[in-house]
Amino acid sequence: MSEPRLSKPLTLADVQAAIYAGLADFLRQPLLGLFFGGVYALGGLALCYLVTRYRSPWLIIPLAIGFPLIGPFVAAGLYETSRRLSRGLPISWSEVLSVVYRQSRREMGWMAFVVLFVFWIWMYQARLIFALFIGYRGFGSVDSFLAFLSTGQGLTFLAVGTLVGGILATILFSLTVIAMPMLLDRDVDFVTALISSVRTVAENPVAMLGFGLIVAVLTFAAMLPMFLGLFVVLPVLGHAAWHLYERANIPRKAA
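Given the sequence above, the corresponding structure tokens read:
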């Protein structure tokens, strides 16, 4: 099994061009973009409801950090849309969704397992950090939890949680940023895709981690107005991830 190789390094200019191309793809196929962005946004609203329903305001922070971790899997349909746009292939709801469905039953299903496993690890670590810093103390409302975060102990809890979450997010980003588009574009197994993704990040740390930082900042900002910003931000970033994959000049199979 041959290993995909990069033919040129990526720069921040490539990241900028990929984001502009992602915005252009969203404007060309806005309904598909809004659909996948809406699925992601509704997932966020459902998590908020569960936090409120079960009176667990401490989950707000770990979920806010962990929620973006599942974004790459939700964006699979956006990668396929951009693939078709870049190759001049016909685009329809059935074609895009059927490709995603077929891949989800193959290698993409294993990628979903990786994403969800890392998300589970993060939530477990968040619970452990909560227990270490807060113990059995409970919070009856979001306001009481936010008041706790303004204390020295609360700020330490927030700093440690953010650090651990950032490390896990960086690991998952490195594993998936190239792997997810590659699985839709080429007939490779998920292990090869994971290795190729990590290699791309390792060979282009400034560009790739710069893109990761942009993804993190825009996603968090989009989550603030009741997740409504995700209707636009997720599709633009999903399309951009595809174009960054293409700019890595990874050999592609014929469509």
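The longest helix spans residues 107-134. Try to locate this feature in the token string yourself.
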